[in-house]
Amino acid sequence: MAKKLKKNKKTVCVIGLGYVGLPLAVRCVEKNYRVFGLDMDRRKINLINKGISPIEEKFLEENLPKYKFLATNDKKIIKRADIVLICVPTPVDEQYNPDLRPIIGAASAVANNLKRGALIVLESTVNPGVSEEVVRPIFEKEGYKIGQDVFIAHCPERINPGDPKWNVTNIPRVVGSFDKKGLRLAVSFYKSIVDAAIQPMKSIREAEAVKIIENSFRDINIAFVNELAKSFDKLDIDLKDVILGASTKPFAFMPHFPSCGVGGHCIPVDPYYLIERAKKSGFDHKFLRLAREINNSMPEYTVELLQDALNEVKIPMNGAKVGVLGIAYKANVDDVRESPAVKIIGLLEKYKTNFLTFDPHILQKSTAKDLKEILQKSDALILVTDHKEFLEIAPQVFKKNKIKVIIDGKNCLDKDAIKKLGIVYKGIGR
Fold first, then answer.
1. Phi and psi of 323, rounded to 5°?
2. CB atoms within 10 A of CB 286
3. CA–CA separation, 208 vs 130, rounded Å?
4. What is the mean pLDDT of the segment spanning 341-368?
5. What is the DSSP letter of 132?
6. For residue 14, how many C-alpha atoms fall within 13 Å in the half-sphere facing its CB?
7. Which residues pair with 175 in a beta bridge?
8. pLDDT value at position 162?
9. What is the pLDDT of residues 213-252, one digit of tens each?
10. What are the counts of helices (DSSP H) followed by strands (DSSP E) for the chain?
11. Does domain 2-204 correspond to CATH entry 3.30.70.260?
12. Are 267 and 218 in contact (CB under 8 A)?
């Protein structure tokens, strides 16, 4: 495949140079494709064209300088592409309704600048039916025949920011299309860039459903342990210990752990796409709705734990000096999408606490200049993100800085050592 490409390179255009699109573009360059990237963020475009990753990600920091490509905001670049990868966000609004405007905008841009015979792959996560009901009509309206003038496929993105093992090069993928040729072209393309199995699906709708159930599965299991956390707090049982005990069973149990909230670009969002689409077809996903309700409640529950702990040391919430450790949604990345920190900070504002925030990976959004400042100026701490910098803090450092309360939102600190120092410790379910 590589030798063939060297003789007659195909051109790939990646629309959306974020956590999904940027690694894909770099990988395509590595695999000898001509690559263009389309994005509307001028700052991001300038950094990428200098070989600098705008995202804190090991794969990108190591490979973007070696495998550069042209990033632009000029939609006409699409006309040069044999393969177009749509990697735009699929968010929800404040009422948790799916927002398909980025998909519609990207598909319209492609349809208006299309090279006939091109393969269009939607990587953005969508509910079953979006390719048929939203994407396909955009191309047909422009007079294109699907399966003849243009080939449309769906390969739902699988990316795990910060993962040292799994990345765009080695995660297995699934692919669906409207027709056999489109499926063959898409499978062939992904086999050329991914060193893992590529699973063809019987329909494009099946491919769409795969990603939704992957993340709904995780959301439901996390909701289960989050509800257990609330229960076990009442029963005075350390849920983390119980889960580790249950994990000794070598089959039929998969450990999930409670926390101060579910964040990221997938789990807190994707279930709503299925909930809303199923509702239009007359089905109510009660289980998914309940899981979302439970997981959405965890930031508020975390702040309730803070209030209880402050009461123990006779400090009122109003005016309490609280330090928020972490803004990112997960450890050792700079990604704030759907981070529970946002809701926790909002609640601290509501209760008129005197709070500071610090995230070593997102300094521009931190209100404390460094870890030393937030420790010195806080009576209580809420650990929201389990960054390695926070895990390395010795319990004695908390005592030295006269920290009276610690809310461990990730259950990652040494509970016993902290409590022995006379500090009020509360975890999520421990």
1. -105, 125
2. 9
3. 8
4. 97
5. I
6. 26
7. 200
8. 82
9. 999 999 999 999 999 999 999 999 999 999 999 999 999 9
10. 18, 13
11. no
12. yes
- Could you give phi then psi for residue 23, rounded to 5 degrees? -60, -35
Q: 268: Cβ–Cβ under 8 A, 6 or more apart, which residues?
A: 219, 262, 292, 295, 296, 338
Architecture of domain 212-430: 3-Layer(aba) Sandwich (3.40)
List pLDDT tens digits, range 313-326. Answer: 999 999 999 999 99
Q: Which residues are catalytic?
A: 266
CB 128 within 8 A of CB 208: yes
41-78 per-position pLDDT tens digit: 999 999 999 999 999 999 999 999 999 999 999 999 99
Contact 116, 149 (CB under 8 A): yes
Which H/E stretch holds residue 176? strand 173-177
Type of residue found at 226: N
Q: What percent of the chain has pLDDT over 90?
A: 94
CA distance 351 to 348: 5
Same fold, 2-204 and 212-430: yes
For residue 383, what are the β-bridge partners? 325, 408
2 has a pLDDT exceeding 90: no
Separation of alpha carbons 310 and 336, rounded Å: 27
**What DSSP state is assigned to residue 134?**
I
Whether residue 5 has pLDDT greater than 50: no
The CB density around residue 55, as the number of other CB atoms within 10 Å, is 20
Domain boundaries, the chain: 2-204, 212-430
Parallel, antiparallel, or unpaired for β 11-15 and 34-38?
Answer: parallel
